[in-house]
């Protein structure tokens, strides 16, 4: 599996606000970490069970991250550097992620280190026609009476390639499992060892 990372902190680069809401109010942020039952209201998760499983895993109690936003799609438009996959199309998604604990949300070093380790770990995964990219971006957090406290977040892009939508989606689904497990492996708090019995 191909995996890479990038940093996009320029004035014109995309950024995130948590919590967020669309202008018409139809779409908004759901805190799936504290209220996992709200997954039922994420339309993309209802449409794509692979995405629903990923969101449930990353927002689960063992993960040190949680999700803010997502989307998934199929397209036959491929970039020139994607020709190496010899595919007719790709199934793709993005998921915006942020640290559950407040302190690391405001540390660029923590984000930079995390995406580097994530890309390195996934580059050792089985060789499938899938690619992941992790982008560190600016994020503004609404916190206890403070509006837009500047910090960082991570956008995970994932693509599966194939000759048709079914094949591309299958490879994307495998990639989702690999990325979810890697996130758990790197973000889960260390387990406390039980004291030795006398």
Order of helices and strands: EEHHEEHHEEH
Helix/strand structural class = alpha/beta
Proportion of residues in β-strands: 25-35%
Mean pLDDT value? 93
- How many strands? 6
- First-last Cα distance: 47 Å
What is the tally of helical segments?
Answer: 5
Radius of gyration: 17 Å
> What's the helical proportion of residues?
25-40%
- Shape descriptor: globular
Can you summarize the main beta sheet? Answer: 6 strands, mixed
In the predicted model, the low-confidence regions spanning at least 5 consecutive residues are none
Structure write-up:
With 198 residues, this protein is α/β, with parallel strands linked by helices. The chain is 29% helix and 32% strand. The protein contains five helices and six strands, in the order E-E-H-H-E-E-H-H-E-E-H. It has helices at 43-47, 49-58, 102-105, 108-122, 165-187, and strands spanning 2-8, 15-18, 65-75, 89-99, 130-143, 146-162. Strands 1, 2, 3, 4, 5 and 6 form a six-stranded mixed β-sheet that branches. The model has no long low-confidence stretch (mean pLDDT 93).
Quick recap:
By secondary structure, the chain is an alpha/beta fold. The chain contains five helices and six strands, in the order ββααββααββα.
Helices, strands, pairings?
Blueprint (H helix, E strand, L loop, with lengths): L1 E7 L6 E4 L24 H5 L1 H10 L6 E11 L13 E11 L2 H4 L2 H15 L7 E14 L2 E17 L2 H23 L11
Parallel strand pairs: 1-5, 2-5
Antiparallel strand pairs: 3-4, 4-6, 5-6
Helix pairs in contact: 2-5, 4-5
């Amino acid at each position: 599996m191909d995996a890479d990372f990038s940093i996009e902190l320029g004035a014109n680069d995309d950024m995130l606000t948590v919590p967020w809401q669309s202008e018409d109010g139809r779409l908004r942020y759901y805190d799936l970490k504290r209220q996992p039952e709200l997954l039922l209201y994420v339309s993309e998760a209802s449409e794509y069970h692979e995405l629903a499983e990923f969101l449930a895993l990353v927002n689960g109690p063992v993960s040190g991250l949680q999700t803010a936003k997502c989307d998934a799609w199929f397209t036959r438009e491929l970039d020139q550097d994607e020709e190496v996959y010899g595919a007719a199309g790709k199934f793709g998604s993005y998921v915006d992620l942020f640290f559950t604990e407040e302190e690391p949300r405001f540390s660029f070093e923590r984000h930079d280190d995390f995406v580097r380790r994530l890309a390195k770990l996934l580059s050792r995964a089985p060789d499938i026609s899938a690619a992941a990219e992790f982008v560190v971006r600016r994020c503004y957090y609404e916190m206890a009476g403070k509006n837009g406290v500047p910090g960082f977040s991570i956008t995970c892009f994932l693509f599966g390639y194939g000759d048709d939508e079914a094949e591309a989606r299958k490879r994307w689904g495998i990639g989702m499992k690999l990325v979810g497990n890697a996130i758990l492996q790197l973000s889960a708090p260390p387990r406390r060892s039980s004291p030795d019995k006398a």
